[in-house]
Amino acid sequence: MSLARSLKDGLQFHAQVIKSGFTPTVFTSNQLIHLYSKNGLIREAYRLFDEMPERNVYSWNTVINAYIKAQNLSNAQNLFDAVPEKDSVTYNSLISGYANRDGFEDRAVRLFLQMQNDCDGVRRDEFTLTTMLNLTAKLSALSWGQQLHSFMLKTANDLSGFAVSSLIDMYSKSGSFPDAWTVFERGSSSAVDLVSKNAMVAACCREGKLDLAQNLFWSKHEMNDNVSWNTMIAGFAQNGQEEKAIEMFKCMAVEGFSWNEHSFASVLSAFSSLKALKMGKEIHSWVLKKGIDSNPFISSGIVDLYSKCGNMNYAEFVYLKMKVENSFAVTSMIVGYAAEGNMAEARRLFDSLADKNSVVWTAMISGYVKTQQSDDAFELFRQFMERDVRDYDALLFINLLGACTTQAIVDPGKQIHAYIMKVGIEIDEKVVTAVVDMYCKCGSIGYAERIFQNLASRDLILHNVMIAGYAHHGYEYEALQLFEEMVKRGLQPDAVTFVAILSACRHSGLVEVGENYFSSMTEDYSILPERDHYACMIDLYGRANQLEKATVFMDKIPMELDAIILGTFINACKMNRNVKLANDAEEKLLKIEGDNGARYVQLAGVYASEGRWDEMGRIMKKMRGKELRKHAGCSWLQVGNRRHTFISNDRSHSETEAVHAMLDCLIQELEASIHEEEELSQ
DNA sequence: ATAGGGTTAG
């Protein structure tokens, strides 16, 4: 009787055995169990095991692994407990089963600790150690990883390709890239193991060091395999280098490697980021042709493509065909719906998920933030914090801070800030910038400043936020000073920096200083002025009562004048009481934004300021003819849980008398202090 | 002789 190679052979063989009435050897039965398990026939595998009159440790290990492969860890554990004499394979198998199952990691650790000390007295071998390294990588538990590494050095278990690649992966995933590099260099002194090289390429990509990754990839490139290519494609796609990812994707095929689900998933994400619907659709058809559209990574990639391209009907269609709940796809769709302001659909999807991870929560809450539904955002955040799970996403807190920022409510902002510190979120540049920005925009410039000053390293964006914060709160001197400091430290300002700087100048009427910065921007830093810079300059001239300069400046703007620039100019006309120039700009403005009620009101304001009631009446009539309205601007403040809103000439507040009395008081004090200052300066 | 471990993706 021959050995069983395929399932068909195996079944035939098994049938023969039964017919002949012979009892197969333990060895033969073990082989059959393995064959059944490999083909997913777990019940048959177990039955055979169960009917064996005699078993050895291989029989037990094989059937335990069958259950682990079938994700049935409780059966595996029961069998494990029943094994008369366990060996290292028995332990390693179950450790690996638990290590790879989310939420069961502690059991893997417990088994590992039990292993050498238990009555079984089974030695930890290289398999044990690499499996545990995997686990510590997954848990980003660097100190455990280091201990395992020491143990491996002591027991000379650190030399094989398996050991090296696991160590690289562990150090890389635990945020210790230099150690990963050291292990790689030491390990590759003999012969480079391909998997170790791939692991190192992946580590470089994870670190954002794409040049290093590429060098490695191309050195000894004759040994590269599919994984090497896919790693590079993924690396580029994840680091915002979509074009390079696509190039590598094409190159891979030219070099004779065939695309698999990893290649498709990565290139799909590149096309999604580029919103390249056409190319993405081509991949979609490829995927359908290859019949791999049921792969959850691929299908959620396709859903993401359509969602990012704003094609929610297609996204829904593809998702419906998936038939299984997939939080990645749902997250993409929630973001897609939020982008078109359709929070009802987003919420429907959110509520449809039985199992919500923190990314989904983040997407939903951030959607509310982006559509300015702050109350809903905070309400959902409250529910988020009430769960037992503690998986916090820094992005969520950044978004919530953004909500406080647009609402200019500092108390919830402080609470979020406190949460960030309390739940131990890693405070990276993004988080700290959001915190500083929140305090700036909510008017607590002192808090912002204190945080800013205490930071060990400050990048460009953080400087931009702080400079803008100073500029918006009347600290023009501090803004300009910080700018100079920043330049001295060797940070290159960008377009955003200059918007902040010019904005500081316009608030304080520093015409000449502003002009200098404006020209320095192109001459010294080669930054092309954008719309906001032009608008800032016009406003600067307007506020300084230099309308002629504003007019000349505007004529020289090389770009098409848009509503923002024209609106700024009209505002300058109003400050300078120049009805004629406003009149000239009116036509252009209404051509661009004739459907915006606010623009009519703005124009009306110019005419009213000069007492030109005829002109004002004309423009208001024009506005009403179009049935346009302007939302009243308002200010508000939060006291306790109540938000008090005020619009112009508003006396509807329940305590309006008291409010106005206090206001009068403040105005008087203000006037008195101005008077005093004037006397002092004389 | 038969069983267990490493790299890549949203």
From TrEMBL:
Pfam families: E_motif (PF20431), PPR (PF01535), PPR_2 (PF13041). Transmembrane segments: none annotated. PPR repeats lie at residues 25-59, 87-118, 225-259, 357-391, 459-493. Keywords: Repeat. It comes from the Eukaryota. Gene3D superfamilies: Tetratricopeptide repeat domain. PANTHER family: PENTATRICOPEPTIDE REPEAT-CONTAINING PROTEIN. This is Pentatricopeptide repeat-containing protein At3g18840.
